[in-house]
């Protein structure tokens, strides 16, 4: 778990405490009963051989350190298992001469030429886990700017996303960045790295600041430099590197995951398995509900904003995607265009009705009821999103109206087909380990060819046709009053007459919603 600073005698005490803690249940069983308990502890030779073979197979397939704990053995009683882990950690706490630090600490890049928009140093937050060979690098999101006017406006109103001058010294991780096993059951013990977004270029730029009054756009170079520095902190011995991100950071994952894999291979680190986790970064280059001039980030159509931005940023895209869209490299910023060209495995997390997508499409869900034309547009958006994700083998796509998920404290509560996102990611981890040893190829089309184990599906997408038809969706609040809205209130606001449809069917509205969702 965490590294401990102890002397030899204290270490012996800690080991003794650990032995007593782990062996106590067995000793208690022995004390209560003679032969029957002895048979339970001393298993038949054949059963021991089978267990040894199973362990050897798991280490061969998954890697001895792929997972800090064997969760597959305790899935039936995970809550109790987590309590035991926390009790063990607390019992070992007095043995440590140092406080178990749960926070990520700020490090500015040593290469001072790689900067934020305003020329201030770029950097990253890190919480190391010495016993783990798994690394999670998270790319922050936060929209973009695409010309001098929009960047000047962004600098006045969102300076934290363009400068490091007021960054805090520490950050506390939440969701998949949380160090708490009850909030983050499968990644809590990984080495955590949070890379703040201060380049405004969807993590694509490679342009330095040439004039004092101008801006630098170095998102792609920031990722490269962070990886280079992490190689001196243990990344060189890693087994798995998960490049994750939300919103613009999610798009940044799609643009950079192959670059990170190639960077490590070119430096001789062939043993590191590089994967991507793109959250809320799968945007569509569709037509707006109502066309507006490209005057600011919010109202500018996605295609036009990216066309202008990629030139202004000196943006880079994956080479394979660039070759597929010569002269139209801007298309590589859209998930369904870039994903088929990627070599690294990527898990896609996407709300079927993404709030940021609706915003740039000029659908603004304020206190006023949605018009019929807007309602049809929203439904069509869900259908388009579902269509573009059809060939993605590993994904989690709830039919909710929201934006970003993996760093939310409630990320474990959302379910698709009865499966939570942490569970789906764990299934994906396991399937990649199996496929890695079954195939020599590393292309997306070779990944996940082995069918997932029963109860461990990877292609998770709701089929119900309107926002929040999934009962596990996040709480909805009225944007004017801030009050919570029930699903029925929300759907009525969206122009859907739940009561009328339920009355026609002769059932309770909630029963109708439940029945419709069960078919998802």
From TrEMBL:
One of its GO terms (molecular function) is palmitoleyl hydrolase activity. GO terms for biological process: negative regulation of canonical Wnt signaling pathway. The keyword Methyltransferase does not apply. Residues 30-54 are annotated as: Disordered. The keyword Signal applies. It holds the Pfam family PAE. Residues 1-28 form the signal peptide. Residues 42-53 have a biased composition (Low complexity). Keywords: Signal. It comes from the Eukaryota. Belongs to the pectinacetylesterase family. Notum subfamily. PANTHER family: NOTUM-RELATED (PTHR21562), PALMITOLEOYL-PROTEIN CARBOXYLESTERASE NOTUM (PTHR21562:SF7). This is Palmitoleoyl-protein carboxylesterase notum1a-like. It comes from Xyrichtys novacula (Pearly razorfish).
